[in-house]
Amino acid sequence: RFAEELGKVPVLAEDSPGFIVNRVARPYYNEALRIISDRVAKPEQIDRIMKQAGGFKMGPFELQDLIGLDVNLATTESVYTRFNHESRFKPSRIQQRMVQAGSLGRKTGEGFYSYDQ
């Protein structure tokens, strides 16, 4: 009831490493990162198509910038470890390089997009 009072939909799930959303989101982010790594499309193109055709409120790169690339990478690393290094959860080198460079998204003014501070 509490979740419903907050406008959320409760989901009863079996005990498992990682939250359901984190498990679903990791491959989603990783595939988007592979697409830019393979130079198939740019972040803004992927975000636009996911919003227009996929019905998402934000694309994967906008969302990573909002969450913070450091937070997203830490979550990815945690899920990757908890699932015994399954390749579908492997952290992206792009994310790792951006975090090392301090490009963490909105909170630093630079991520996949640039933001005025």
Give a brief outline of the structure.
The protein is built from 6 helices and no strands.
Structural features, described:
By secondary structure, this protein is mostly helical. The model has no long low-confidence stretch (mean pLDDT 93). The chain has helices at residues 2-5, 20-37, 43-52, 60-67, 69-82, 93-100. The longest helix has 18 residues, at 20-37. It has a single domain (20-108), classed as N-(1-d-carboxylethyl)-l-norvaline Dehydrogenase, domain 2 (Orthogonal Bundle), CATH 1.10.1040.50. It has six helices and no strands. It starts with a helix and ends in a 17-residue tail after the last helix. Pfam families: 3HCDH. Residues 18-115 form the 3-hydroxyacyl-CoA dehydrogenase C-terminal domain. GO terms for molecular function: (3S)-3-hydroxyacyl-CoA dehydrogenase (NAD+) activity.
